[in-house]
Amino acid sequence: MKRMKVARTAVILAGGRGLRLRSVVNDRPKVLADVRGRPFLAYLLDQAASAGIRRAILCVGYRAGDVQVAFGKTFAGMDLLYSREIELLGTGGALRLALPLLEDEVFLGMNGDSFCDVNLEEVWHSHHERQARATIVVTEREDVRRYGQVTVADEGVVVAFREKKSTVGSGWVNAGIYVLAKTVIEQIPPHTVVSLERDVLPGCIGNGLFGFKSGGSFLDIGTPESYRKAAELFSKGKE
């Protein structure tokens, strides 16, 4: 059987203010935080480009102009487009705002403040093989309190989400990478503050929502402690 191509478009949520990072990154938006001499967002774009992505839509908000100046119109052979929030709309609202720029019926979504070392092509193929409506990459953590827990049952079906700090111990958490049908985003009311994680994805339970379990390295840069670990992850050998 002919192998299916990977997603053509990635939408990256890059509008966060990074309030918890202000003690160490206070002069730029979170996605431009320096990691080994490069903006953190550059590593996500590297990952997308390596998987064959040709268009990246950056959902920008806080200090959006700084991101546009830093990256311009192209990166590693990809066309870069910008969807600019005037008021912060949450992760789901930001995706809804970017809807006019989406030309594909299925696309790759990525959180701009986290990185998961996963094969994006495998995630894409898994989504289509399962005929999924939405696929969320999950990674195992020893302590899920900071992230919230994703319960994945047999054959990869997502059956529950638990809020941050509501449960203790190890489990699977959202790794910040998604494959989504455009129809998932079309259902979001325009110009409304909506969370993809808390409002949209839980509503997909029982309607084609799957988890893709990743054993690769994972980090987010939401706190000074986790941000400091980014330099170690993106060491010369990892690059």
Model description:
The chain is α/β, with parallel strands linked by helices and 239 residues long. The protein has one domain (9-233): Spore Coat Polysaccharide Biosynthesis Protein SpsA, Chain A (Alpha-Beta Complex), CATH 3.90.550. The chain has helices at residues 40-50, 64-71, 90-97, 120-129, 182-186, 196-200, 224-233; strands at 9-14, 34-35, 38-39, 55-60, 74-75, 78-84, 106-111, 114-116, 134-141, 149-152, 158-162, 171-181, 209-214, 218-220. The strands form 4 sheets. It has an 8-stranded mixed β-sheet, with helices on both faces. It has a two-stranded antiparallel ribbon with strand order 2-3. A two-stranded antiparallel sheet has the order 8-14. The mean pLDDT is 92.
List the helices and strands and how they pair.
Layout: E1 9-14, E2 34-35, E3 38-39, H1 40-50, E4 55-60, H2 64-71, E5 74-75, E6 78-84, H3 90-97, E7 106-111, E8 114-116, H4 120-129, E9 134-141, E10 149-152, E11 158-162, E12 171-181, H5 182-186, H6 196-200, E13 209-214, E14 218-220, H7 224-233
Parallel strand pairs: 1-4, 1-7, 4-6, 9-13
Antiparallel strand pairs: 2-3, 5-6, 7-12, 8-14, 9-12, 10-11
Tell me the strand order in the biggest sheet.
5-6-4-1-7-12-9-13
Mean pLDDT: 92
Shape category: globular
Point out poorly predicted stretches. Answer: none
Structural class: alpha/beta
Structural domain tally:
1
- Helix/strand order, N-terminal first: EEEHEHEEHEEHEEEEHHEEH
List keywords for this structure.
alpha/beta; Spore Coat Polysaccharide Biosynthesis Protein SpsA, Chain A; globular; 30% strand; 8-stranded mixed β-sheet; 239 residues
